[in-house]
Structure formats: structure tokens, C-alpha cells
Amino acid sequence: MATRAQVRFATREEGVTFSEHPNNIHAQFYVHNDGYPEFLGVEIAKSLLDSTKVDSWEIEYLDTKHGDLEYIYYIWQAPSKTTWISIFKTNPITDEDDDLNFLQGDECIFVGEPQKLMYKYDTN
After folding, report:
1. 3-state class of 65 per DSSP?
2. Are 90 and 78 in contact (CB under 8 A)?
């Protein structure tokens, strides 16, 4: 069974907390398999830390919504600031067009820099 995820890129801004979904994202990718933190989260952290190549991402339109996602990742960046990552465990929605239910009830399970993600999730 696939563990689906989205990876979104957001700008670090004053007053925007890492533990909530941001209103503005700049790019979005879909990952059909292995979206759990111990795999995809570690891949993202490794890529940020040492430029390791990440495979199997599909570019999506910013307004694309999936009702079957299990995780949503945010990569928070800004010039001259450290990069942070947020991971949300999602609650499936029943109607992909229902904007009121999309992202509601998701649980933020991780917030931190790539090194912290590696420490928490890398089992190798």
C-alpha cells in the first residue's frame, strides 16, 4: 500500500508559526510511495544537509488537493535564515472539493531543522 504525501515550500515569515499550515506556498510536489517521516522526511533532511538527490517527486499545481494523503511536509526557507521542516499527519477528507474540510484536523508531528529530523527519524 502506498503512503502518499505532499511536499510544499513556504517562505519563513514573521508571525507565521511552523506548527500550522501556511496560507502561502510557492511550490508543491506529490509523492505516491514511502511518504512516511522515516523515509521521505529523512530524504528531505539529507537533501538539505548534503545535496542528496531526491527521486520520485511529481510537480503539482499549487491548488491541487488529494483526499488520500497521509502526510504533508513544509520546507520553510528564507535568505539568511536556517531551513526548517514541518510534518503533518493528515486526516483523509471525503470530498476533495470541500475546501472547509481540507487540512482541518491534521496533526503537526514534527517541527525543526533538518538535523533534528535526522535525529528523530533516521533509523540507519
Report:
1. coil
2. no
